[in-house]
Specification:
The structure is a single chain. The chain is an all-beta fold. It is 0% helix and 53% strand. The protein has no helices and eleven strands. The strands form two sheets. Strands 2, 4, 5, 6, 9, 10 and 11 form a seven-stranded mixed sheet that branches. A hairpin with a 7-residue loop joins strand 9 and strand 10. It is globular.
Length: 118
Amino acid sequence: QVQLVESGGGLVQAGGSLRLSCAASGRTFSRYDMGWFRQAPGKEREVVAINWDSGRTYYTASVKGRFTISRDNAKNTVYLQMNSLKPEDTAVYYCATRNSGYSQFDYWGQGTQVTVSS
C-alpha cells in the first residue's frame, strides 16, 4: 500500500518562504516520478513541479525561479522549496507519484494548505 504524507504548509506573508515535505512509503521510491500539484478555491488542480526518477525536473511557468523540487531517496521524501511566495500561490498542495514512463499519477497525498497573505 503506497502512502504519501505531506507536511510543511501554513500561513506566510507575501515574499516569504515555505518548504513542503512529502514522505512516501510502500514502494521503491527512487524508481518513481514524484510531483507536486496545487488546487486553489474555484480552480482546477494544476501541476506545479515534477521530479523524474532520472533527476530531471519540470516547473510550471508561474513558479520557475521561485520553487525548487528535490528528493532524498534515502529518506523516501520529496521536497518543494517555495521562495518569494505570492498571494496567488495560495492553494492546497498535493504530492503524487507515478511509475516512471507513465503519464498518470496514481497515488496522492491528502494535501497541505498554503496561504500567502498580501
